[in-house]
């Protein structure tokens, strides 16, 4: 070969490139203003007779010639070179980007209108597939969404924000959470569609390169070749691209001949200047590629009719003022009208096309602002409409209310809870956990106690085994197989620890979401598009993160998904820890935003502190801070003996907290042995008073606490020693390193 690649590629292996392949390469390469990388493209065309090319668009209003004519020419060149073109009709993406107010029905109409235009204007559709993103993703959600989540996990929020130009945004403007999800999804599209070539505009280059980076990260050999086409300028000075919101900047594919003439006549076209001149650009990128020539008709006294075969000759004449702007414009108008006439004819004679165009012209081109910022995280004031004031509660309902209410350190709102229990015999309660290592007593004993109270009060409890969430949060290194082992181990413990599972469903997040993805993911997207990034970032605490940490894109996706879980499970009550309060409040605010009356009641339980001074909660990564559900009796004794337990001080004393939140709720009493004999307490207030007065010594409190804890944990120990499945699960879990 005369023109050997300058960069190392598989071509260097000695693969001979035929004349046919070189011709195909030149044809495909001509589509792009930039190609990453030429050598990879040659290699691809030499090895694959029908490579897959990915192109796409957001259906968002009338089609201008940059979207229409340039795409038609690009697609026809690609199919002529043997490519199979998949055109991604990005309806869900237009929805997330709030195009047409996020109205999916309107977005669908616009997508159909686009297809009509492509076919009427001369697109060769023989090797072209039009694929609706919503349909394809729903059909293969089990492949698509894990890919999106993995991309989100592997990329920092800062890196994803640098891709904002793909949606016409900058990374410094106010963004919604949907903008982050959008980038991760578009990156996934390339791999999901098994694309060999990405043929999109220069404004999409950052996300296409993100897909190549992702391939490097997962050690995927076949990276997509990026072919980025030129972005046509708007008609007015300084407009770097056409915009639908300003009709004077664009020529639309069904514009009448007179409209085209007027728009070109008013277009910016400075004499003698080529750079930044939209009229000259249209000749270069539309007319010459379409007709292979450009004919200027004029009087003999102005130089006569001249046909140009190359853009270089046009530039020479224009810069030397041999070619006048008026003559250029007249010839450009004539050529454009010739190209557009078949489209006009189609939309006048075809009733379906005519109806589509009428609808599309009636749509206002919008990108709506974020609905409301929903900044307030405080408890909402009572809603008079849902108040239980005046509602007569039976003794049975009052008892049920007292049982359910006793679970939460905080309840939002108590009136709503009373109302719910009075009207619904079996309310649905949502609880959940991330499988992420050994289970400590806060997750074990407290959950068993709370679930048993809820089922006693008639609730149906859905326990969400958040395997995908653990993966998003990079628990156990994001290894889903290990996460599933831990989930099974948790179930074993709860059942061995005395959980009444008659009215309990254990639901794996991955299974439920895959099974009902058509309902779930639009809900996630809607939550994401209605909330700004700052609001979602403040939910980072639910994952044990702070807003100031270096976050991955997954930390934005996670709260939107957890909020959606509540609605997917049709939960009446959310029973989670105080650390999950912000995302539960997000769910209530979402109900306000979509005018949904039945908001989930938030029942937030206390967070048990770690055993050492200043530890706000138990941590699996620090075994000395936690008692695990299968700890041996000697382990429990040693950990409690070393626990922080200052004499006469109740506040911040973990041993007293364990009595209050674990022992008393389980046994309804707490017996302490002292030199003066045994003393049994039935209320925490009495225990606190005795302890503050010095009558109850730390060593006596600890001995009684150890005894009570070991009584609770003994059935779990026995189960994990005698049950082979449980024993095997525990061995695996203990071997897993707790990582984030």
UniProtKB/TrEMBL annotation:
Keywords: Aminoacyl-tRNA synthetase, ATP-binding, Cytoplasm, Ligase, Nucleotide-binding, Protein biosynthesis. GO terms for molecular function: ATP binding; tyrosine-tRNA ligase activity. The keyword Cell inner membrane does not apply. SUPFAM superfamilies: Nucleotidylyl transferase (SSF52374). It catalyses: tRNA(Tyr) + L-tyrosine + ATP = L-tyrosyl-tRNA(Tyr) + AMP + diphosphate + H(+). Its EC number is 6.1.1.1. It is an enzyme of class 6 (ligase). Belongs to the class-I aminoacyl-tRNA synthetase family. Catalyzes the attachment of tyrosine to tRNA(Tyr) in a two-step reaction: tyrosine is first activated by ATP to form Tyr-AMP and then transferred to the acceptor end of tRNA(Tyr). PANTHER family: TYROSINE--TRNA LIGASE, CYTOPLASMIC, TYROSINE-TRNA LIGASE. This is tyrosine--tRNA ligase. It comes from Brassica campestris.
């Amino acid at each position: 070969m005369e023109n050997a690649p300058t960069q190392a590629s598989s071509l260097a292996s000695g693969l001979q490139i035929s004349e046919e392949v070189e011709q195909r390469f030149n044809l495909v390469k001509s589509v792009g203003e930039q190609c990453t990388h030429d050598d990879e493209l040659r290699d691809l065309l030499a090895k694959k007779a029908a490579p897959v090319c990915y192109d796409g668009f957001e259906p968002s209003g009338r089609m201008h010639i940059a979207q229409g004519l340039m795409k038609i020419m690009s697609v026809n060149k690609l199919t002529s070179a043997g490519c199979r073109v998949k055109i991604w009709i990005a309806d869900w993406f237009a929805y997330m980007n709030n195009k047409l107010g996020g109205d999916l029905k309107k977005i669908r109409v616009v997508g159909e209108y686009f297809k009509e235009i492509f076919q009427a204007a001369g697109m060769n559709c023989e090797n072209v597939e039009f694929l609706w993103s919503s349909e394809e993703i729903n059909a293969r959600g089990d492949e698509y969404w894990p890919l999106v989540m993995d991309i989100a996990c592997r990329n920092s929020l800062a890196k994803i924000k640098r891709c904002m130009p793909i949606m016409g945004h900058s990374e410094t403007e106010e963004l919604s959470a949907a903008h982050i999800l959008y980038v991760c999804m578009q990156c996934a599209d390339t791999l999901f569609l098994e694309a060999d070539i990405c043929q999109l505009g220069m404004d999409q280059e950052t996300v296409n390169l993100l897909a190549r980076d992702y391939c490097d990260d997962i050690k995927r050999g076949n990276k997509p070749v990026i072919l980025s086409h030129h972005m046509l300028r708007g008609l007015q000075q300084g407009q770097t691209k056409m915009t639908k919101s300003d009709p004077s900047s664009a020529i639309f594919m069904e514009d009448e001949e007179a409209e085209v003439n007027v728009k070109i006549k008013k277009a910016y076209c400075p004499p003698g200047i080529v750079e930044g001149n939209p009229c000259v650009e249209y000749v270069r990128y539309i007319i010459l590629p379409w007709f292979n020539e450009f004919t200027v008709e004029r009087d003999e006294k102005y130089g006569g009719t001249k046909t140009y075969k190359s853009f270089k000759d046009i530039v020479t004449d224009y810069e030397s003022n041999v070619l006048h702007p008026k003559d250029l414009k007249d010839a450009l108008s004539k050529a454009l009208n010739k190209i557009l006439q078949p489209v006009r004819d189609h939309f006048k004679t075809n009733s379906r096309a005519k109806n589509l165009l009428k609808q599309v012209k009636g749509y206002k081109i919008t990108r709506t602002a974020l609905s409301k910022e929903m900044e307030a995280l405080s408890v909402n004031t009572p809603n008079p409409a849902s108040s239980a004031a005046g509602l007569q509660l039976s003794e049975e309902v009052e008892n049920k209310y007292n049982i359910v209410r006793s679970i939460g350190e905080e309840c939002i709102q108590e009136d709503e809870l009373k109302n719910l229990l009075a009207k619904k015999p079996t309310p649905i309660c949502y609880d959940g956990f991330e499988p992420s290592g050994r289970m400590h007593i806060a997750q074990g004993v407290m959950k068993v106690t709370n679930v048993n109270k809820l089922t006693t009060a008639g609730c149906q409890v859905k326990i969400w085994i958040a395997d995908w969430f653990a993966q998003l949060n990079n628990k156990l290194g994001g290894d889903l197989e290990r996460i599933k082992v831990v989930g099974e181990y948790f179930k074993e413990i709860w059942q061995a620890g005395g959980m009444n599972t008659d009215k309990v469903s254990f639901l794996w997040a991955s299974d439920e979401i895959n099974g009902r993805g058509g309902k779930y993911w639009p809900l996630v997207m809607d939550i994401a598009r209605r909330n700004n990034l700052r609001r979602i970032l403040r939910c980072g605490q639910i994952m044990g993160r702070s807003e100031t940490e270096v976050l991955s894109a997954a930390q934005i996706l996670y709260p939107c998904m957890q909020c959606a879980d509540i609605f997917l499970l049709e939960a009446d009550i959310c029973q989670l820890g105080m650390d999950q309060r912000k995302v539960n409040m997000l769910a209530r605010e979402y109900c306000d935003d979509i005018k949904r009356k039945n908001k989930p009641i938030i029942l937030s339980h206390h967070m048990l502190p770690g055993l050492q001074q200043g530890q706000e909660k138990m941590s699996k990564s620090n075994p000395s801070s936690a008692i695990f559900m299968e700890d041996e009796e000697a382990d429990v004794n040693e950990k409690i003996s070393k626990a922080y337990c200052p004499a006469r001080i109740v506040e911040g004393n973990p041993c007293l907290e364990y009595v209050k939140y674990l022992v008393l709720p389980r046994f309804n009493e707490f017996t302490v042995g002292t030199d003066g004999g045994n003393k049994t307490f039935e209320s925490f207030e009495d225990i606190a008073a005795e302890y503050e007065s010095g009558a109850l010594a730390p060593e006596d409190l600890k001995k009684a606490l150890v005894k009570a804890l070991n009584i609770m944990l003994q059935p779990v120990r026995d189960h994990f020693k005698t049950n082979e499945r449980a024993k095997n699960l525990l061995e695996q879990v203990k071997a897993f390193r707790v990582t984030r």
